[in-house]
Amino acid sequence: MYDPNCVFCKIVRGEIPSRKAYEDDLVLAFHDIHPVAPVHLLIVPKAHIATLGEAQAGHEPALGRMLGVAARIAAEHGSEDGFRMILNTGRVGRQEVLHVHAHILGGKEPLGAMLPRPKT
Ligand code: AMP
Prior knowledge:
The chain is an alpha+beta fold.
């Protein structure tokens, strides 16, 4: 449920400050500390799940909530006409913080391409 060494667990518990964007019983959303888009939020389950690869059936309510509230949170923070969610997972996904989190990225204008296409 809680990993004392996890930065996002500490944010959930208020032990590390964050700019909160949304909170309910299952999830917390806050502004990314190094934004890469005009709107850049992170949404996390309150319970510690290191990666999606470790998610269990019991985590599905929180994981579903992350998706279910994303559009409203994005709109409320200035991305009313769409947004992108990214959930980096594991080594290949280049997940840096080992507490499941989805990036909510957006703004007033379309974002860049999701991944640069390899040159042919
Ligand atoms: P990822 O590569 O998907 O694991 O991304 C981790 C994200 O967490 C990065 O975009 C960081 O800027 C962000 N981050 C790390 N520490 C904090 C923090 N204390 N508050 C807000 N965002 C953070």
